[in-house]
Amino acid sequence: MAWSIGLHLGEHFSEVVAQFNGEAVSPDGPGRLVKKRFFTPQMAPEAGLSQFLTENSIQKIDRAQLATSWPQRIIEARHGSSIAVLTTSGFESWLELTQPLKTQFFSPHPERPTPLFDSEFVFGVNERVNAQGHIEKLLEETELEFLCSKLELNQIKNIAVCFLHSYKNSTNENLARKYLEAKGYQVYISSQWAPSPGPVPDHSQNEKTRFWQTIRNAYCRPLFAERLQKISDLLTPLLSDPSQLKMGKDDLSQSISGLTAPLADSNSVTDFITQKFAPATPLLYCGLEEFVLLDGSRRKSTPISNEKLRLQPLTTLGRTFLSPISFRPETASYDPGPITFGRGHTPTLFDLVVSAKDFVPPMGAAEKVTDRGRNRLNEHMVAYARSSSDKMNVPADQLIKALLQMAGEILRDDIRNKLVTQNAAKNVIELRIAGPLAAIIAPLLRAPLFKVTALDDEFLAAKALLLSAGGVA
Fold this sequence. Notes:
The protein is an alpha/beta fold. The chain has 14 helices and 19 strands. Strands 3-2-1-4-11-12 form a six-stranded mixed sheet, with helices on both faces. The chain has a five-stranded mixed sheet with strand order 15-14-13-18-19, with helices on both faces. Strands 6-5-9-10 form a four-stranded parallel sheet, sandwiched between helices.
């Protein structure tokens, strides 16, 4: 008898669900279901998983299905490795100029995000492929010899190769990769950015999309592979067949070795949830780290099937131009944590949710919420009320309730805007909702034009993976 495991690895929370023998669930014996969520800033994922396996005497595994958001989180936190970028000569500055603006509105001082690379390590290479795919200038190895000495001096081992029109003819990119890999470098080429299947737009022909996807993969891969290796070292000895350790649709070993792109792996958890729980009806997944709208019915007509919403669990609260307290565009982090964890300094939507009356914080977060943290949140609420122009004397619990209602209105508007084309002929938007924070968010979304069905399952992400691993959760 062996186990099937679904493991969702988040940046701050990881959750695992395991089922014995994949049979119908019973309290003991074949089919029993066990689950756990752990807070990764204080317990490394491999340590939490090891503890889970020991607690449940899991010594043999038939199949394990993993999914993670690590690559995207590595990029957002700027925790990736130093990389070099090779591009067609004359286009060295183009990459930095194509970054989006931070500010959403017109500004006399527009800002762009910090690049993932140092401009000192963007190299122009004398090669050229025209728009028809004909090689006008073949890449010569002498172009790369000086480059290698400079990269070795700066201890850079990861390279993104982004040549113009390589989707038409990748000969020059392949020559660069062959030469650089022989020198011991990890190389990503932009022609690996495959076209999306079906009638969705072909992003392989968009130079900006291909180039930045390649750069992002090269930037996050070393740390991503290092983290995955620790999980592999823990689970592989327990598997009768190591090929049954999966990351997304591929073997975990392929993700570690770089045969699959990290960012492709980071989308896999929402794909699994969509396939298992939202194939036709949109589903709002209210996770501890993100709120995301999933809709399997859109796969055939648009290039994405999930969208993050404007409000996220750690969206901050504070003074705005029009209000003494409202939701701001910035988000906080679980490290040091929300105010209710007793360490943060800025109130967030998460703080409001876990402080709502009769709401029990989910496993993994409940242990972190403290009475001291709740008292600090109440003090912040009272202070915001008193600093308003009309010196409101509103109790903290009433202000929290009002802000949660405001959050519900913002979420409804956002969801309506994203689904209006799918529901243009309907008067009512049908929506399923699940996840660790769904119990408090679901009542906020109910309105005359919303039909909300709550799925009572805070481990939905890990269970979607378990189902893919052969479980019957």
